[in-house]
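User: Cof-type HAD-IIB family hydrolase. Structure?
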Amino acid sequence: MSPTRIAFLDVDGTILDHGKAIAPSTIAAVRGARAAGHLVYLCTGRSAGAIPPQVSAIGFDGAITNGGAYATSGAETVVAEPMPSDAVQRLIDYFEHRDVLFFLQTDAAVHASPQVQEKLDAMLHRWQSAHGEPDEPQTAPQEVPQSRDLADVDLDRVAKAVFLGDSVDTVARAQDELGDRFHVVPGSMPLPAGSNGEIGMLGTTKGSAIEAVLDRLGVDRSMALGIGDSWNDVEMFEVCGTGIAMGNAAPELKALADETTTSVRDDGVWNAFLRHGLVAV
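Assistant: Predicted structure:
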């Protein structure tokens, strides 16, 4: 039997495709790898409460969520690092002062204003209607979770913020003005104009959570595969022994990975697992 490997899989654009669909080969890859004794973890920017049921139903050994603020291994919580409440308040003040739409994630749910929820729903509907061709590159979220009221969020439980700006330089400005304390990366939401991004605490990334999981399991990073398609996957590529970009990822992101597999619509996860011996034909 080959040595036990551990794989970390992004969700949107890696497992989940247009219309909330999951390729049968992806399900077969995850279940086949686990049956062969390998470990497979989710590694997503989503909160745990926003992981679609059809993704969870595949079966995983654990999950990294909120871009690394939380991580579980089996029934054990390995990482639980919500933002300090004063940091959350700084973000709220920043967004409101600049009229930038945003929502906040706890590990359980997404919290947004009615205006933001309406914009997100309209954005996704418009994008799905305009990008339905079978070979269309896929990097954007496939569904927008219904949110709870932003006014009800517990500032002590916020793990991550997501923002949507009208200007193309909204992300760059946030990086410049918040980079002293926060990790700011471009998001993958399909806005018709402007830009969007994700914000966590400095040092809190998918990569940091993967390191914590590997340490807890006693698994060397050389045995880890990280597969993703978005900018919050960069640190995952850096930490894992093999970083694999999906074929539908941006060219600039592919350049930061060790290798590229096929797209989410072309058996990308299965082909990566097959190449590295986690499954067999």
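The first helix runs from residue 24 to 35. The chain has two domains: 6-81+204-276, 85-113+145-201.
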